[in-house]
Design goal:
Elements lengths: L15 E6 L4 H16 L23 E5 L5 E5 L6 E6 L8 E4 L2 E4 L2 H15 L5 E5 L18 H11 L4 E5 L14 E5 L2 H11 L10 E5 L5 H11 L2 E9 L11 E7 L7 E9 L3 H12 L4 E9 L6 H8 L5 E5 L6 H4 L4 E4 L2 H12 L5 H4 L2 H12 L2
Helix pairs in contact: 1-9, 4-11
């Protein structure tokens, strides 16, 4: 994603830019900041004498902020420099389990609830001072609890309403489990962004012998919930798609869900084709690997797994074995949530870096510039595909 495709030279920023990456997104925040610093150093504007361009070019836009924790487990959010009049962008990874804190002498790993509370603490510390507060939450908090099927809580909707009531102007997330949850706050800014271009680019860069046509390649949706994603990829690449649906045993509940009895397939033959399984997240990975095994039984050539969020809650052993057994060839996930160092060393793993894309989103929004072109990269994907086929 080239920053030079958008011209900000004749646009005033909405306010002085400030970026607050919480500890959970520290590395991602640093990369995002480096991109924006580099771009703005090379940018000249006819409004450069305007007061809104004061501090436009800086060595860093990261605001010094932290969440301190007491021995009892309670905490407070502190912002250690002025943010008055700033256009703030808070970045948080609610899935980062690698951060710990002490509770009465015991070591606790931070849960999504802990990260969400820290986000609210920083928002509260900024209240009434910042010109605008924007939250970038790549993995939407409680997005898996987005609907009610029995007497249940609606956690994601409640969280969105809470952030709105705290004064958050915009919420930016990636590949929300169900973007219709934004209906909980219809008057607030909410964007669920699909990193389609970045995934296709990463796949093309890591595999140099793909033949992208309906005779040699296919997109696979592992369940009905991922259909929209799969249809988009199939359309922009001009290839066929297939879908699995899960037959479950609704008479039993195991680990909070009805166990899967079988995976049934709908679609054309996958025999001899490279297939790409598209989904929003890899949690335990059980469903994704079951889908890959079913595809290999149907004589698929190679299986590539692409998922925005690689949680790997049950570790990597099952994926290691699947790779060794030739069931999967590549696994692609993004760096917008925590990646364990051992994952980055896997021979089958492809890291899809979204830091430049997030930096461009922030830079655009800070200028009140439309991000419509960033949300629909169809033209860029067609150019990428043409270059790949003509390599």
């Amino acid at each position: 994603m080239s920053q030079l495709n958008i011209d900000f030279k004749d646009t005033l920023p909405a306010g002085h830019l400030g970026i607050i990456p919480l500890e959970s997104s520290c590395e991602l925040g640093k990369k995002v900041n480096e991109y924006i610093v580099s771009w703005r150093k090379d940018r000249n504007s006819k409004y450069s004498e305007n007061i809104l361009f004061e501090d436009y070019k800086k060595d860093t836009y990261i605001i010094d902020a932290k969440c301190s924790r007491f021995g009892s487990g309670e905490a407070k959010g502190t912002i250690n420099e002025s943010i008055r009049g700033k256009d703030l962008y808070l970045i948080v990874d609610v899935t980062n389990y690698n951060i710990t804190y002490k509770l009465c002498g015991h070591i606790n790993r931070m849960s999504p609830d802990d990260h969400y509370q820290d986000l609210k603490r920083i928002i509260a510390a900024a209240s009434g001072k910042a010109r605008r507060v924007n939250v970038i939450m790549p993995f939407l908090y409680e997005s898996r609890q987005h609907k009610r099927t029995s007497r249940e809580s609606l956690d994601c909707a409640l969280a969105l309403q809470e952030l709105k009531n705290m004064g958050v102007d915009n919420i930016i997330t990636f590949d929300a489990h169900d973007p219709r949850v934004q209906n909980a706050t219809p008057m607030s800014g909410f964007e669920s962004i699909q990193p389609n271009y970045q995934f296709i680019k990463a796949l093309f860069n890591s595999v140099d012998d793909l033949i992208v046509d309906s005779e040699h390649m296919m997109i696979i949706s592992p369940d009905e919930g991922a259909m929209t994603r799969a249809v988009y990829y199939a359309n922009v690449l001009g290839i066929d798609m297939g879908m699995f649906y899960k037959r479950r045993d609704y008479s039993r509940v195991v680990d909070g869900r009805n166990p899967i009895v079988a995976h049934e397939f709908l679609g054309a033959s996958v025999e001899g084709k490279d297939v790409v399984i598209i989904d929003d997240m890899i949690s335990s990975g059980e469903s994704m690997l079951d889908t890959a095994k079913e595809l290999k039984k149907r004589k698929a050539r190679r299986v590539f797994v692409a998922s925005t969020f690689g949680l790997f809650t049950n570790g990597f052993e099952a994926f290691d074995k699947a790779y060794e057994d030739g069931i999967i060839s590549k696994v692609l996930t993004t760096n917008c949530i925590y990646q364990p160092p051992e994952l980055l060393e896997k021979p089958y793993y492809v890291n899809v870096d979204l830091s430049k894309y997030i930096a461009l989103l922030i830079d655009s929004l800070n200028h009140d510039h439309s991000i419509s072109d960033l949300l629909d990269p169809g033209e860029k994907i067609h150019k990428l595909l043409q270059n790949y086929n003509n390599r």
